[in-house]
Specification:
Elements lengths: L25 E10 L2 E11 L8 E7 L2 E4 L7
Antiparallel strand pairs: 1-2, 2-3, 3-4
Length: 76
C-alpha cells in the first residue's frame, strides 16, 4: 500500500508532481467537501485495474462501527 498526502484541502487538480498512478492497481481519492457551510468527507475511486468501478463522488462518515458510505439520495 502506498499513500500520498496532498496539500490542498479542497479542489484537487492533480494527484502528484510525478506520474505514479501507473504503479498502482487502485487509486482512491479522499477529500473534504464544503456544502452550505458544512464539511463532509468524500471518497472517489479514480482507478481500479482489471475491474469495473463506479466513478461518482460518495460522501462517507467515520463512526464507531467503522467507515460508512452515506446513501445516495435519488430525485424521483
Amino acid at each position: 500500500m502506498m499513500t500520498y498526502e496532498l496539500p490542498q484541502l479542497f479542489g484537487v487538480s492533480k494527484l502528484s508532481d510525478v506520474a505514479a498512478s501507473h504503479m498502482a492497481d487502485n487509486v482512491v481519492l479522499l477529500q473534504y467537501r464544503g456544502v452550505t457551510g458544512l464539511m463532509s468527507r468524500t471518497l472517489t475511486v479514480l482507478k481500479t485495474r482489471a475491474t469495473d468501478h463506479r466513478s461518482g463522488v460518495r460522501e462517507f462518515q467515520i463512526t464507531a462501527d467503522g467507515i460508512m458510505l452515506v446513501p445516495v439520495q435519488t430525485t424521483e
